[in-house]
Amino acid sequence: MTAEFVRPGESPRSTLPGSPSPFVLAAGEGERAHLFDQLFTVLLSGDETEGQFGVFTMEAPRGRAIPVHAHDDVHEIFYVLDGQVRVAIEDADGEILDRVLTTGDFGYVPAGRRHTFRVESLRARTLGVSTGGFERFFAAAGERTEATAPPAVPVIPSGEQLGEAAQRFRNEFFHDVRLID
């Protein structure tokens, strides 16, 4: 299957209602975006929950850790649906919680904590829940897509695009910090 990308300036067809209305999605539906080597699919946004929370999935092959980052006012969870994902989270005392989560495992990142993750298995899928609004960071930093699989070639945003998305979604990157070797 060839990925169909939404070009800048085009409005992708949204499968989300954009307001607190009952709805259902079939498997694979949602607002999809590629960022790095990952496919993010937003299943529920802050628009539907009056800003309370967003729900998304992430699917990716084994790869490198994403840049260490923190979001001051965004809480985030990782629930592994399939595969193995290493998460590293800095606690309030600066200690690092570094664990490989496997299918069915859960991790929580409180707002303001530096963290990163890396897929350890050949492929992994996670369910994420975050404070409402943050779920749209992935499309802003990467690119919207109609594809239902991770990108064959990683989508690496320009420094400007990543910086703008980080500022808009209250995300701070720490490129000089490594939490996972």
TrEMBL record:
CDD domains: cupin_QDO_N_C. It comes from the Bacteria. Residues 58-121 form the Cupin type-2 domain. It holds the Pfam family Cupin_2. Residues 1-20 are annotated as: Disordered. SUPFAM superfamilies: RmlC-like cupins. PANTHER family: PUTATIVE (AFU_ORTHOLOGUE AFUA_8G07350)-RELATED. This is Quercetin 2,3-dioxygenase.
